[in-house]
Every structure is written in C-alpha cells, then in structure tokens.
From TrEMBL, chains A, B, C, D:
Keyword Transport on entry: no
Annotated protein name in UniProt: L-ribulose-5-phosphate 4-epimerase
Annotated ranges, domain Class II aldolase/adducin N-terminal: 9-197
GO biological process: pentose catabolic process
Keywords: Carbohydrate metabolism, Isomerase, Metal-binding, Zinc
Documented EC number(s): 5.1.3.4
Amino acid sequence: MASLRTLKEEVYEANLALVRHGLVLLTWGNVSGIDRDQGLVAIKPSGVPYDDMTADDMVIVDLDGKVVEGTLKPSSDTATHLVLYNRFEGVGGVAHTHSTHGAAYAQAGRPIKILGTTQADYFADDIPCTRDMTKEEIEGAFEHETGNVIVETVGNRDPLHVPGVLLKNHAPFTWGKTAAEAVRNSVVLEEVARMGLMTAQLNPQAEMNQHLVKKHFERKHGPNAYYGQGGPN
Amino acid sequence: MASLRTLKEEVYEANLALVRHGLVLLTWGNVSGIDRDQGLVAIKPSGVPYDDMTADDMVIVDLDGKVVEGTLKPSSDTATHLVLYNRFEGVGGVAHTHSTHGAAYAQAGRPIKILGTTQADYFADDIPCTRDMTKEEIEGAFEHETGNVIVETVGNRDPLHVPGVLLKNHAPFTWGKTAAEAVRNSVVLEEVARMGLMTAQLNPQAEMNQHLVKKHFERKHGPNAYYGQGGPN
Amino acid sequence: MASLRTLKEEVYEANLALVRHGLVLLTWGNVSGIDRDQGLVAIKPSGVPYDDMTADDMVIVDLDGKVVEGTLKPSSDTATHLVLYNRFEGVGGVAHTHSTHGAAYAQAGRPIKILGTTQADYFADDIPCTRDMTKEEIEGAFEHETGNVIVETVGNRDPLHVPGVLLKNHAPFTWGKTAAEAVRNSVVLEEVARMGLMTAQLNPQAEMNQHLVKKHFERKHGPNAYYGQGGPN
Amino acid sequence: MASLRTLKEEVYEANLALVRHGLVLLTWGNVSGIDRDQGLVAIKPSGVPYDDMTADDMVIVDLDGKVVEGTLKPSSDTATHLVLYNRFEGVGGVAHTHSTHGAAYAQAGRPIKILGTTQADYFADDIPCTRDMTKEEIEGAFEHETGNVIVETVGNRDPLHVPGVLLKNHAPFTWGKTAAEAVRNSVVLEEVARMGLMTAQLNPQAEMNQHLVKKHFERKHGPNAYYGQGGPN
C-alpha cells in the first residue's frame, strides 16, 4: 500500500497546485492520478474546501468507480476521469478546472487555435471543443457520457499530443503522464486561452506557420528533444 | 442575546470575505444577515474601513429600519436590504458589491446570460438587470425603492433560484440562505460576468442547452442533489 | 516646522498608498500635498524607487518651484502640480499615475463617460481628456504648460466636483482636499476606467440617467450628504 | 574571476526579477548578461524551476556558445542571446519572456504602436514585430536564425532606442545596458502592450504626436535628460 500513500500525496499536492496557480475559485476543480499496476485512482473528494483537505482525504476508487479506500464521497466528476483512464493508455493524471479564459472558450464553443510557441511547446495542435451533448447523454449517465464525448473529440490523435479539451458550455479537462503534468497542462491551457482571446482582438486573421509549430513541439517532446536538463520536459 | 452575538460575527466574517475575494475597493460593498425568529438584521456600518471594523461594529436594525443595537450609523443601503428580507421569505443574507465585471454589466444594462455550468451550478437562469428607476423613485425613498425594483425584477421566480440581480447603472445585489451564501453568490456572479464578457467577445451568438442548465442546477440544488458530502451545496 | 514634518509624512504615506493600490509600476507616479498657510508643497523626489524612500526624502518647494528643503531633486512633474495648486484654491493634494486603464483612455483621447454610481459617488460628471498640446507648449515649459492644459480642461467646473482629468497620450492626474483624497480619486478613476472599457464592449450605447448621477453625488458630497459616519465622505 | 561571480549574481537576480514582476509562468523566460572585457555571457540554465535555482547555477558561455563554466545546460535560447551580443555593441543584458500581452501582440503579428508617454519614456518608436521565419531558418540553426531575424528587424535603428522586439508567433525579446535594464524593458513592454490593446479597443484610430514622443524620450535618454536624480534613467 506504500504506492497508494504516495499516489494520494501526489494527487493532494496536484490539487493544491491548481489553487496556487489561481485556476480555482471556491471548491471548483479536481485532480486525480492513477496507479496503473493496481488499477486504482486517487481523486479529490466532492465539494470539500481546499484549505481543510489533507492527503488522507483523497478517495481511492477502482476503474469501475467503486470506492476502495476513504470515508468521503469522491468528486462528482469521477466517472469522467475514469473514462479517460480506461481509454487513454499513457495517461497518469487528469485535471478539471473552471479557469476563467478556458471556460470562456468552452462557453463560446470555440477551439483554442494554435497561434504561438507557448501553445506549441505543450500542444501539437489546436485545443478542440466538444460537441453539444444530447438530451439522452445529459439525462443518462451524465458524467460517464461526458468522458465519452471527450474521447470522441480527441479522436485519432495521440492524447499526450493534445493533452486537453474544452467541454462545451462547461470548462477544460486536461491530462498528462502524471497528476502534476495534468495540472501543468491546465496552467498552459488557461494562459494560451488568455493570449488567444487577445490575439483575436488584435488580429482576427492571425495564423501560425506549421513548421514553427512542429519545431517547438519537438524541441520539448520529439525523439530529439533538447529543452531542459534531460529528455523531454 | 446569544444569537445576536453569533449573527454579528457571521455578518462581520461575511463582510471580510467580500474583501478577501477581491470584490471590494475602499469601503464599497456591504453584507447583512437576519435572525428570522427575532426579526432583527445585522448590517455593516456606513463608510467604515474594513480594516478598522470589528464584529461589535455591526449595527442591529429591526425590519422597519429602527436601530436596536450599535453606536454607528448602518449602511446607507440598509433600506434596500430590508425590502429583500421583507419580501423574500427564505433569504437569510444579502450582499452588495461594486465588483468590476458585475458593475460593467449593470452599467451596460445587460443581463448575464446563462452560458455555462459555472453559472448553472448556482443560478437556474440568466442574472437579470433592473429597469431604469424613475425620477420619482430616485428623488423619493431612494434606497427603499431600489429594493422594490429588485423585487419587481425577480418577479415570479424563486429568489433562491435566481439569487442575485444587477441594479442598472449601479452594481450587483445577491442573496442566499445565509450571509456567507450571499457572499458566495457575489463571488459566482462576478466570475460568470467575467466569463460572460469574454464569451461574448469570442462568440456573440453563444448559447447553452437548457437540458444542461437543468442538469447542473439540480446536481447541486434539486431534490436529488449529489454534489458535495451531504445534501445540496 | 512641525506642520512641514506632518505634511511630508502625509505625502510619503500617500505615495506608498499608490503602490499598495496597484497603480504604480517601477517609479512611475507621484503625489504631492500643500500647506496652504505656508504656501509650501511636499512632493516625491524624481525617479527614486518607492522601497528605498523615506518621509524625509520628500522635497519641499514653494509655489514658484524653488526647493526650500530636501537634498533630492523633486519630481520632474512638479511644475504641473504647482499650476494646479496655484489655480485650484480648494485643492490640498495632487496625484499622478500611469494606471493601466486610465492611461489607455488617455492614449485613446476619450473621456471616461459617467455610466454608473461608482463614478457618480466621486465625480459629478464625465472625466474629461485634455486636447493635444502644441509643438510650442511641448518644446517650451512643458510641465508648466501641462498644468495649464489641465486647468483649461476643467474650465468653469468646480475642481472638487471633477477631481481628475486624463492627459492626452499620457495618463491621469487627480486631486482632492488632501494628498490621501487625491490618491483615493486615482483609485476611483482607474476602477471606473476599467468598468467603462468593459461597459463599452457590452453596450456601446450605454447611458446613465442624470437624476441618478445627481442623487449619488449628493448622497456623498451635497449639503445633505448622508453616507458615512459624519458629513460628506 | 571576481567579475564572473558578480555577473552570475546580477543575472540570477535579473531572472528572479522577471518572476517578481509577474512576467513568467512555469520555467518560461530567461535573462543573460555579458562581461564585455572577457567576452563571456552568464545565462539561466534550461528548464530549471526558478525556486530551485541559485546564482551558481547560471551557466557561463563564450560568444561562440561554448560552455566555459557550469554543470547545467544553458537556456535553449542561448544562441539567440549570443547573436544579439555579437551584433549590438552597447547591449549588456538580454531578456526573453512569454509575458501575456506581449505574446498576444507577437501572435497577432502586430507592432506595439507608440501611443503614450509610458512607451516614449523607454522606446523612441513603435516596438516592431519580426517577419515570418522561413522553413529553412526554422529547420536549420533555429535559435541562431531567430537572433538574425531580430537584428534584421531592428535594422538601422540604435538598439538602445528600440530596446525590444516581438518575435512573430512567439513572444518578446528585450535588451538594455545591463541585465537589470533588459528586465525593466520587458516590464515596460508588457505594460504598454496591455495599454495598447485597450487603447485599440477604445479608439482604433488613436495616434501620438511625434513632438510629444521626442520630448518624453529625451527627458529620460537625451543629452539633456532631466528625469531622476542623476543623468538618464
């Protein structure tokens, strides 16, 4: 169980990082992480203030959503997280926020177009927005269907090359190899949304050269990555 | 009198929460709370800096506005608060701020359209803006008439389903079951105003599916609410 | 000389208040205050970082700009402040900032229209923008001519009813009965500029009822003011 | 080697100043400084969190990019910095950030027009944006070519009169006589970008009188500069 302890601490720290980066108001937002060997997920409890939370409050669920450890109810978005773990193999962490600019793009139903190296350093393409959910999806297993719509939106792309989407009329979901990386991608998404809105105001026709997109993404994530002190960062 | 002491402390804390959430500049903004059994309201004193204020400075008035306890003058907006307590039965707290984005919507005379789940988690509909007040209302019992115009704007809706309005050319008023909940609704109103302005800039035609509005509002407030650790949150 | 000591401390505190309110980057901005009995003005020294400054660094000049006390050079904008003291009798303090939204209006050459009670609580009207200065004014006694253009812009209005203007392609100047009140008016100007920009984005045709303007200004500043714990605030 | 020690400390402090001024998210941004006598440059290591960094982590490279001192890899943007030192004689420090508004202008491919004295106090003209880089430049010695494009954009102008450019679809580079001054120019660039975006929203036709530009630039930087306590500031 040592690894579960570590996972709970990582997920706890990742949830606090959301707050520290100014991505969270009140109790909005949640982060989870998975231990792939055990097939167990640690996630923030539902509606608990960040200030009162401890690492022990993280709830452990299996990939079917059954609570395995913990006395609190897991996040009401747990079923969405689980779909992503079940369908995206390389993903080790998932984050959900209502960060202001990301949420505005989601409300507008617009993708965050790739217009600069800030985005290309982490996302190989536009950050897409999901389609409207149907009445049946909304009134059915809503949070599970939400996960399905995210998976549908990512489509054939490598989820780690487009590590986030905008949930229409809702807000962003991001992911990464770890819970910390999922949070980092939420930070990046919010910042490029902020830049993207201003860019559109300055020049609605702005575009980015695909050679430059590729260069920057591969500088950090390609087989010959050379940013940072080791391999890809 | 124990309950009055508690009420004053709750109202004092709620006033400080406005400041902590960045909704207040200088001495703008005020929060009140009511003890329904005694029919007494605690409210911030007028024009006193938040830093110098103590719980004891909260002024107690009855539902006709008579000062029952306290040496300072109550907020100049007291008469508006009292109309809301007299007309909205389930309301236990009222907050007024000049939060920037909410005030901008009020100055524009535009409702904050419901465009995302951030709003739908707390408001079941658009946040309406009041009509222009008449010369007679402005030159008459101005603060009392302000309350009347708010009540007129809420109309037949359940005040706890639309727990706030924009006062035209002025700023937001919000309310809730407690003073703390009224402040929380001011926080939400300011954030959805911020998101709403950006959404309009990204896509002036943005809309939200009514099924999704209903799902989110009821997830937190309906008879089968399942967000948080207990009942509705 | 006791009063000079007090004046230097008030002006020092008012300069720090500019920083605390987020209206100052680097060494931009300066506040002065006047002792009308002695005809002496205390003002921030030129280009000194706020962190290193003490009350003793405030420079005392007479109404002709002669340094009477202090080892540092006074603000390069001193001549502008002096014109305002010489021409506006009731003014006891002057503040100059490059606060972002105020500066944007000044760069746009647009007045800050009165659109809400936030402005009407402190300004009885629009906050005007000066005309372009001529080549002769710019290449002549520039800072003195800047003061003249401000006075020309205020025109026949009571300077304490319109306690600030936008200097075209530059930034705001505000004033008040004291240095602290001049700073407060800089805070209000920046906030109403921020609200004004957003209001224009939401509704370019927004307007405010003159009865409401008058009601709010007089609630705080008229002969029957009833805001705050004493008289006008 | 005493001077190298000092240089490393200055560069370390300048990197932290970027963070303190809110111009940096995550590990984005880097500052370097040069010792012209030794022809050696100190620069931030690549991808190292600011919180963990010490002055000793600054990497020393010569003007050909060879690491002379230090155990970490230098910033992946080092080659860009070196072109600027090799081509701009009077430059002693270079800074690169992804500051939000500057990056938005870079993404839009638009210069930051000179519209106010805030800009004219530090830049004698518009802040230009580079052209698109070619496929060959991007796939070749990318960071070196980036430096060449910056030099091409500055053209015949004195680099200290236009101490920064926007790198198209990327973000700002600024420079100055020292590392600290390069950072100060990044602060100014971000602020005038913020003001510029708002100015364009308020009045797309806004312009600034060239006499006023000249007056303000020379007040701080001309032979008869009179701002601050000494010479030019």
